[in-house]
Amino acid sequence: xxxxxxxxxxxxxxxxxxxxxxxxxxxxxxxxxxxxxxxxxxxxxxxxxxxxxxxxxxxxxxxxxxxxxxxxxxxxxxxxxxxxxxxxxxxxxxxxxxxxxxxxxxxxxxxxxxxxxxxxx
Length: 121
Fold this sequence. Notes:
Radius of gyration: 14 Å
């Protein structure tokens, strides 16, 4: 079983920055695609940013040029640097990690519990 714990959320003024972190732990043999998603009140969850195992990235149009996703496979960590935050970025941000586990080499698809990001005017 693989557990994910996000951190770094909080309250920030519009135009400010935050850096989210996602720590993966457990019997991780290899990491595949890792991504950040968000869900605002009354809205469906949406992809914010994704990074493949080959380091290709994909961003939602609304965050391009403002957010940067990165990963450190040696530490089983995923990051999201968020700059120029806007009111519309307010949401619960969750990380998603795919990979395989030691032993049986089973694939996993794990989600974190989410961290709140609130942008104020």
